[in-house]
């Protein structure tokens, strides 16, 4: 999937006035639901085409032949013949349905519907992995067939000969055999393989009983709408008594075809909860691997309560996964056993929760043990990686050790905050494999959106969240605090990424794109903290994305509250879209969301916001605009920062001197080049471009409303066009070409990142990270010159100008220097902050890392860890689940290729390198000896490389705003309370 035929760009980021075009990527990201990751341009079709395809899908559901035109023999020699006995002769072939013209058209457009395994290439499906590959399409279509009464095969199921079950199972077996072969990356693709084992037609066992129950309930509701209440019960809180409930419901439908479906559903529910069935599975497992599971049957017999049985089965699941990853022997059988255990554990968990007061009678310690057992089970079914399992278990173990002495309420709350990440990890693991095809299918069938939620509801995660919710309620009662969600107190569902206060109109990107002008205040609801966001006062996100991305760091700097909202609360938030609201998020993690009264102004700011407001003041006298030719970073030092060049170039120069061999060479185009271009060229009005810009700013200050918006847009458009067409000084061009050859090598043999490096970034109180343009890996002198023009023009984009203008008092003195930094094709890259950004402990490092280049700055789901500088111990916060990684092209630009899926990106050697660097970084910022460093780095062949360093600047609004301080008062007062884990929750 090629990102760009031309060099890839990092577009201007977060806090800038939005235009409709700037919102396109956001609208795509959430066009089908806020829990979705952005839709790749490769998977997106036009709205008109998608509408046509949806119509075709609806038609296929009613056609006797569904997606097929007719039956045909598909011969091994390539012939396609009408159906008759032995049509293909000795060489043989397969008889099945032939796709209709509409089906073929949709498949050509990337919608892999009407999959016939008999005609599929098992080797290609299993071994040519892609995040939105054919295997995932097959599995999602199977889901739709189950939950939507046959979907496009609703009538075609009765079209004799359309499928040959023996052929489907034979190819299904071939796919599974190849997926589980010794040379396959089992650990990296474990969850995908298990889904295939559970859902592909195969002769190796049917493990779909629970899935069948859930899909049958949906199919019955489609025929009998009043079954909806019972269907919801089965999906959300299935228990053994539901079988009898279904039978009682079925009495009213005797004599109708749906009556048999209802009785079959009831029988399947009985099977799920049958003790005899469970005991047989346990006995078979113990017999199949006596060396490993010799004690399993004994433990099962000794387990008297549902809780004990749950823990025994979960432990077996963990051991099974370990065996699967260690040995290729009988892997398909082992996966089938895992699938059986998942169903059984789900049933035992539902039995455990069947009584409303079961959890309240259990001690906190017993509830934590249940969570620990669930970790084993979630790991066994592929929803947790080994690193996530170890981290989650470690959190519980540390709390249990503390409890031997005295567990404080603060420690209890930290534990639960850590465990709150587990459901997010599980969901992101499935999204890593399936989100691409979910988004693709959702364009033609909205029910595809239910794929991942359905899988999670049918997993041990349902039990896990019920137990965790009980403990969170307990914590809230002990502390005396709770979040408030439109006046209602709630115990969980929020996670604060950035504290702050915001007022604004609550909108989704689609709603914002429909507005002619952006609202005065905007609180945006987005899937995650994406790299390109319009001007916002607050953010509500479904996932946290990347804690150290440019967008996230800028939000921290400007005091923009950013809060992760759980899926249940997101659903409850929808009725408030379009309302004026206030969002408060405290440093302690307490959140209040309320609707503003009619007499409350959106633009009213608190005293804390006023005290912490950022103002950009340019010291024009400090600037040296006499230097107009490019300079090597070897010639620069810290004294040049903000004087002749920007802070990026100056810091690269410093890094090069202090860490020789770890920084690629660079050339800086100084501020003076930019100013000379403006002074030497006249505007059509007869004055220099610089004087014209100055006069335009004065005019803008006299205008208001629509007139100001129109004048601003006209000015910015004219400036951007001017930079792209103005004739460059031949002396500058010739000098640049000569110096580039000297610094980088022959033209075309290298690439450079063309980075904006203005005099209004990395200032005390303001970072400006990621606001202006970077062109990635420009190759060839003419391409680089074009990129330089684009970067010069970038501060005059609607986005960059919008946020800057509101904070500047001398906007005409914005000067854009440029850093040409030789490209490094990092295997993995990220961001390091020399403190714990969550609790500000200076003895720890915060690191985010992803595969490929730009891994830590672009907002993708990265691995996020805390590193203890003394012990090198690593605490995991999030895993890298971006399905693609960015790699550089020798011809220029970048492309995206599938990420490996490796759970652990940081090696022990990487950790050592990061600690060594942080210990040697010294006092980098002379104007602020206590500054925290924000460092961009990479690893190439496991060698540590450095790209950039800047001060981390954070808003002080959370400490200065009285209301935020009050939200945390109860936390501070109760922090030293003790919690007795041996007692039940309160």
UniProtKB/TrEMBL annotation:
What span is annotated as the signal peptide, if there is one? 1-36
SUPFAM superfamilies reported in the protein's UniProt record? Glutathione synthetase ATP-binding domain-like, Phosphohistidine domain
Annotated Pyruvate phosphate dikinase AMP/ATP-binding domain ranges read: 644-955
Q: One MF term in GO for this entry?
A: metal ion binding
Q: Which reaction does it catalyse?
A: pyruvate + ATP + H2O = phosphoenolpyruvate + AMP + phosphate + 2 H(+)
Q: Which UniProt keywords apply?
A: ATP-binding, Kinase, Magnesium, Metal-binding, Nucleotide-binding, Signal, Transferase
Q: Which EC main class describes this enzyme?
A: transferase
Q: In which pathway does it act?
A: Carbohydrate biosynthesis; gluconeogenesis
Its domain of life reads Bacteria
Q: Which family does it belong to?
A: Belongs to the PEP-utilizing enzyme family.
Question: Mind telling me what this protein is named?
Answer: Phosphoenolpyruvate synthase
Q: Which organism is it from?
A: Pseudomonas marincola
